[in-house]
Amino acid sequence: xxxxxxxxxxxxxxxxxxxxxxxxxxxxxxxxxxxxxxxxxxxxxxxxxxxxxxxxxxxxxxxxxxxxxxxxxxxxxxxxxxxxxxxxxxxxxxxxxxxxxxxxxxxxxxxxxxxxxxxxxxxxxxxxxxxxxxxxx
Length: 137
Fold this sequence. Notes:
Elements: E1 11-18, E2 21-27, E3 39-42, E4 48-54, E5 57-64, E6 70-76, E7 82-85, E8 90-95, E9 100-105, E10 115-118, H1 121-136
Antiparallel strand pairs: 1-2, 2-9, 3-10, 4-7, 4-9, 5-6, 5-8
């Protein structure tokens, strides 16, 4: 009667998909490294909920003005706190090698409800600085 799930691999695994919602686990991978974020994305149809299971992770939200300038807001995640990124919000998550995060979102989000925005070298540098500032606080 009780189902259990565990994902020990690298990256993203939507392991529990039901009508209307899904639960996934994101473990560290190079594209999510604390110093390796090169793009942000947004979901048009769903909020995305994040819960830190272990390790160190920084949740990133971003806005782009009409001129295309990107501003970042970074939060060092704490275990046991639920974080929500509303639909249509640019975001990403930076993680250390031991990090694992549970994600709850609309079902099948991973199959196409996303838009990516590559970051310029200057934006990557500003984001890296913002992440390190949050980690040092």
